[in-house]
Amino acid sequence: MLQESEVHNLNHRQQFCYKNVLIPKWHDVWTRIQIRVNSSKLVRVTQVENEEKLKELEQFSIWNFFSSFLKEKLNDTYVNVGLYSPKTCLKVEIIEEDTQYNVTVTRRFDPKLFFIFLLGLMLFFCGDLLSRSQIFYYSTGMSVGIAASLLIVIFVLSKFMPKKSPIYVILVGGWSFSLYLIQLVLKNLQEIWRCYWQYLLSYVLTVGFISFAVCYKYGPLENERSINLLTWTLQLMGLFFMYSGIQIPHIALAIIIIALCTKNLEYPIQWLFITYRKMCKAAEKTVPPRLLTEEEYRIQGEVETRKALEELREYCNSPDCSAWKTVSRIQSPKRFADFVEGSSHLTPNEVSVHEQEYGLGSIIAEDEIYEETSTEEEDSDFPYPAITQQITS
Question: Transmembrane residues, as ranges (predicted)?
Answer without folding.
Answer: 113-130, 136-158, 165-184, 196-216, 236-260
